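Comment thread on ticket #2218

A.B. wrote:
> Attaching the input chain for the structure job we discussed in standup.
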Amino acid sequence: MFVTESMKTDLVTIGPKATLDQARLLMQEKNIRHLPVIDEHEKLLGIISDRDMRSAQPSSLLGAEEYETIFAQVMGRRVEEIMTRDPLTISVFYTLQDTLLVMQQRKVGALPVVDEEGRLKGIMSTRDLLRAFVNIMGIGEPGTLLCILVKEQAGQMKKIIDIITEENVSLGSVLVARYWDQDKRAVFPYLMTTNVVTIKEKLLDQGFELLDPMTWYIDQLPQKRS
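C.D. wrote:
> Ran it. Output below, let me know if you need it in another format.
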């Protein structure tokens, strides 16, 4: 799935010549943390964040009168003076997986989405990304998450899918994680039902090992040294 299907397109933007006070009021009014700066052709010039705004403000250690004086001076400066120029962006052709990797590697909470001409088309935030994955995985619907340990060999996934479909149960999603034991993986099917007794019995009969998903997660956490 491409980011264009999940990104925000009803964007709030500002021009580079606007004042910081205009940017501050706009961010407060729209309750946003990232404000793209664009030119008259909608090309992305930079981005200003709530962190940038806080950094530009005078120290709270100043006296009230001095603080107000400096604050008024700062708020009269232009957006282009403190914006992040040439910010990290992603293409409209990026997938959700591409975007997730970029956010994780670069430790950013939002990414402007631009076309081949550098025109701003949307913004993808971590919240948008989470919403998209919830939709893809089907976990917004009532169901049950199983954790199945399988051998690292061909045909294991087909056996699991066959058992599930034999019971006329729909799959919301299937995730596969590397397990720490040699030659094993953990498979996490999300089943669109809460009645999984028969499916569990059939999986056990086929020699699969079932774990509680939370138990598996806890086992993967780094162990504290005594």
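A.B. wrote:
> Thanks. Noting for the ticket: Residues 199 and 205 are 10 Å apart (CA to CA).
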